[in-house]
Amino acid sequence: MNSRIFHIASNTFREAVRDRVLYNLIAFALLLSGAAVFVGQISLEIEKLVVINLGLTAVSLFGVVIAIFIGIGLVSKEIEKRTLYTVLSRPVRRWEFIVGKFFGLAGTLVVNTFFMAIGVFAALFYVSHRFIRADALIFVALYFAVLEFIILCALALLFSSFSSPLLSAVFAFSLFVIGSFAEDLRSFAGMAHGFTRWLATGAAYLVPNFSAFNIVSSIAHEQPVAPQLILHNTLYAFFYAAMALSGAVLIFENRNLK
Amino acid sequence: MPAIEILGLEKSYKVGFWIKRPRRALHPLHLTVEDGEVFGFLGPNGAGKTTTLKLLMGLVFPSSGSARILGRQWTDPEVKAQIGFLPEQPYFYDHLTAHELLNYYAQLSGVSAKDRSRRVESTLQRVGLKDVRGVQLRKFSKGMLQRVGIAQAILHDPKLVFFDEPMSGLDPVGRREVRDLMEQLKHEGKTVFFSTHILSDAEALCDRVAIINKGELRGIGAIDDLTSSVQGKVEVIWHGAQVPVSMKALGAECHITGETVRAIIGEAQQDAAIDALRREHLRLIAITPVRTSLEAYFVEKLQHAESKARTAV
Description:
The structure holds two protein chains of two kinds. Chain A contains twelve helices and no strands. Chain A has helices at residues 3-18, 24-42, 47-71, 76-80, 83-88, 94-128, 137-160, 165-180, 182-191, 194-206, 216-220, 227-253. In chain A, helix 1 crosses helix 6 (94-128), helix 2 (24-42) packs parallel to helix 6 (94-128) and helix 9 packs antiparallel against helix 10 (194-206). The longest helix of chain A has 35 residues, at 94-128. The mean pLDDT of chain B is 88.
């Protein structure tokens, strides 16, 4: 990686950590330990299922909230506070700034997910007292969650490059919700006719397909994940994030920093 | 080779909600700053000083025109390794300490890992922040942040430094320190381009100044030329509490303060005034040419532009 991108990414990571973003991990740990003790007392035979479902859903939600709420301020906050002036008056290209910010936030989310994963496995161990081979599938669900965060980081940055933090949050969150129902949108497009069909198909393929990343239920039921899905989701996430990031760079390259 | 050549840089913004109309923030600007100069860019608030600096830094894009900095196209990223920039009322990453911030900027400026630590420490020492190097910037006062701003601008030993209102928010001691620092930079052979609306700072520091108002260049010149004895008058000061009749006859405007008398006369009457004082056995203290202050020049340029605009209407 270009050294300037690396330094910008490191600073973004440090900023997130010092802004007490990782404090959410404490909330996450408390939530999971409480839930593990609670379900251990009230549910019979399905404690493990509940803990996996709850744990992975919580990982996803915490990550999505962090990706959106940090991502939307990454560029606009720097313009508003004018910290960007002293960065761009150095031999730093605008695209390097955007890419550095992206890697910084993505790195923060990976670290965050790592610690949350420890919490999930600890809660799982608490209720089942042992690990089995099928538990390794949880890693795939966590990997898909990270891919989902990467797409969201890029989208939040894209919106942040031309819009206010509030509007960026609305756009990013709306896309997340719509994207979670992308499969339904595609089914609807298949049933529609004429112009509506074209419009619905276009919209269905334009929004990020987050529903493909949600395998929590099948993991909880110990169903295997097809290797093709892992490959497909990986390529899709990197392609989609690259597109969104290119858009952010294109907009930011031509933006007057008033 | 000039340090800065501004070749007709111009900036217009589109304003209005429904119908966008262009509003000129900067009329085509032509300006040259020589290598090693301390150049003052003067103007009232909203005159176009910050817009010019943002154009030169590549933070906003010009509507037309171009510039050359240190002999290269101003958009060349390599040029930026050789310049420093202090924005107006700077704000920094407040989660960082002064040391961490300077280290980060040194990394971005391409200072080698070998030199980085030494450079950061010496710059902190130079701006008087060594004792608070480990304190997060959120705890810094406005004056201390200004010093951090100056530190980040000179950290990588640039050939050319741009300061936007460097004295803003500083107390008299802080202002004095910044002045001293700018003088040091001049002695080191750096070119300093700074914008200000505080004329005494410009008068004390600059070799040349340009005056800008409403986005237009109103005047430019060397401080010595602008403040020269254009009035053709001299001030005569002598010890005593009286004004000789012969002095009054020269048409002198006299002011008595305690045991000292000051009189303003025409340069042509200078010898006659000395003779008059000698005849009356009065002790001459000084004769100095009456200089136009930079302030008078500044006000005159702005008023001249205003009246021209009114005539045009």
